[in-house]
Design brief:
The chain is mainly alpha-helical.
Length: 316
């Protein structure tokens, strides 16, 4: 057919795959206006109507509203402008759907109560400002009021989750669990005690005790004994314990002895809170970091080895 041929509404329906009712609806709203009418009063459309209807059909399938479509076909809005706006809107919808899916998966996996489900849903939908405020309150409860808070600035940064703009489901789930931990008053108190113990160590030594100092000693000096299957109470463990405690004594600038070993055992018991390790694991997922090495088995070995070699300590 040439460009002068006019088409009935039925012919348009066959060519576009749209129903007659749908084409009439678009026509009534001026999106695809008839070119002429037949002697019987039926609407007739030019060949350009096919192209317009194909565009309308595509845009509707992409979720574009009719008022915007009319502006596009009337060239009041450019198609790239509309596409950019709707791509942004879809990105928001995708993020919301990811959040909902993450919460539902967490509920299914954890067997949550209605109250827990409501909390998870609320935490998952926190804005960036709300997330920062929650973590800020947690870090303030842990580090606030110390004589040398500035010395812990790096530690505070390393404990701060940064959920990306378009997180994966696993990151959303990790954020929800981490936020629940941050709201846990007992966990806050546990981490606070750990920080206070580290501050006390720094006061003893007169210098900043490296945060990774004890962890590095556990990994490097106790790890081989654990891997070799050495019983922490056996004589074979003595060289490892001596090396480990000597390293701690060096960090504190204090002589190795019963008092120091008792302090070290108590310190390691505080460090070995499984909630703390879980926080670090979740933090790595949220921030896209490499999963941290679990030191729990080596710390357990160290505590056992120290306790069997350290007489019961009675505080004055």
């Amino acid at each position: 057919m040439d460009g002068d041929t006019l088409h009935s509404i039925g012919e348009l329906a066959r060519r576009t795959g749209l129903t007659v009712k749908t084409i009439r609806f678009y026509s009534d709203r001026g999106i695809v206006a008839p070119t002429d009418r037949s002697p019987a009063g039926h609407r007739l459309y030019g060949i350009d109507a096919v192209a317009r209807l194909d565009l309308v059909k595509t845009l509707r399938e992409l979720g574009v509203d009719l008022s915007t479509i009319r502006k596009v076909v009337d060239q009041e809005l450019s198609l790239p402008e509309v596409a950019a706006a709707h791509a942004e809107a879809l990105a928001v919808q995708i993020r919301v759907l990811r959040l909902r899916r993450a919460v539902l998966m967490a509920v299914a996996e954890r067997g949550s109560t209605p109250e827990e489900t409501e909390l998870m849903h609320r935490l998952a939908h926190f804005s960036e400002d709300e997330r920062r405020r929650l973590i800020g309150e947690f870090l303030d409860a842990v580090f606030g009021g110390l004589d040398d808070t500035a010395a812990f600035a790096g530690v505070m940064r390393s404990m701060t989750p940064e959920l990306p703009d378009n997180p994966e489901v696993e990151q959303v789930q990790a954020w929800v669990e981490l936020a629940e931990l941050a709201l846990d008053l007992e966990f806050r108190a546990s981490v606070r005690r750990l920080v206070e113990e580290q501050a006390a160590e720094q006061a003893l030594s007169g210098t900043a005790v490296p945060r990774r100092g004890i962890a590095a000693a556990v990994r490097d000096q106790v790890g081989p004994a654990l891997a070799a299957g050495i019983d922490p109470a056996s004589p074979e463990a003595d060289p490892f314990v001596s090396a480990f405690t000597a390293h701690y004594a060096y960090l504190l600038g204090r002589p190795d002895g019963i008092e120091l070993r008792h302090r070290l055992a108590t310190r390691l018991e505080s460090v070995n809170d499984p909630r703390r390790e879980r926080y670090l694991q979740l933090l790595a997922v949220i921030n896209g970091w490499t999963a941290p090495e679990s030191l729990a088995p080596a710390v357990d070995w160290s505590v056992q080895a120290l306790r069997v070699r350290t007489p019961r300590h009675t505080s004055p």
